[in-house]
Give the backbone structure.
Amino acid sequence: MKLSVLQENLDKALIAVSRLVQTNSSLPVLSNILLQTKDNRLELQSTNLELAISYKVGAKIEAQGSLSVPAKLMSDLIHSLGNDKIQLMSVKDNLEIHTAQLNSTINGINANDFPKIPEVKTKKQFSLPTKSLVAALEYVLSSVSLDESRPALSGVYCKTSGDKIVFAATDSYRLSQHTIKSSGSEEIEVIVPHRTIQELIRLVKTESIEEIAIGITETEIVFSTDSITLTSQLIDGSYPDYTKIIPQMSNSKIEVDKEDLLSSLKIASLFSRENANTVMLSVTKNKLAINAEGAQIGKNTSEIPVKTTGDDQEISLNARYLIDSINTISDKTIVISLQDKLGPCVVSSSKNLKENFHIIMPLRS
């Protein structure tokens, strides 16, 4: 292998693929990344055996080849170099790196020992606008369960519904759903791991990508663009029918300025830390009071003007869950719908109320 590549492009690719590298793995090769020439470009690969990233960068290829090298050393070295042209050349199982001022040699591992990332031939393929996909995933991500004892809840549920795709996540204490339009007619019902969603969002946010191609098999999902491919195993199992807990009516509705509510909740959360993040919302005519108390700290009450319809209400909720849900809503006005103090609380924007929402279960105070 012999090629020339710009430091800026190589550095960006190394940052993208290095997050999957396992430094404490019993397999030394998993601490490496694979460099290989492909389609007149340099391709970098990393994997943790459940998730794999491929990132291609433009390069001047003089000789084909491949080699596996330690990810951290390679990444740190390239990152420390100036924005210049870099020459990479493999000599047996070593990688020589040359610039106008530098000559380095990194001991590598034969590419044949690097885990093969299979080229998945997907049966179901479609594309989604990047902006819409990322918005939907970020909307639901905070509700994914981190409890590994319930694998089905540890990912984002994706299901087609007519000309739309529904994304949902729940940890049994809160639920988030976001819907986007899709031109694809394929029937889809999969659970994508939490880590995969995190990596996908991180990768595409650093790129100018209009659309993401998505391919699905019975066990894997592939997200791909011209330069990036993210391949992941799917979570096996059935997702619970969360639609049964979605309230069909409310006794009270509050419309409140997002920044006012967020500010008051952040202050309240300072006093609720030792009390399981519990805050009490008291709704009266055109006024919302947020109360928090900690036995060792003190207590706090904030009152903000709101627009109310329906009955006066009191409900105890987790302040962190409320803040997480509000942060995903881009509108200036937040709508909170309540049944009673023991019924689920629905948080949404004033638009698409039935398709994009968060549900937070009350706390028994």
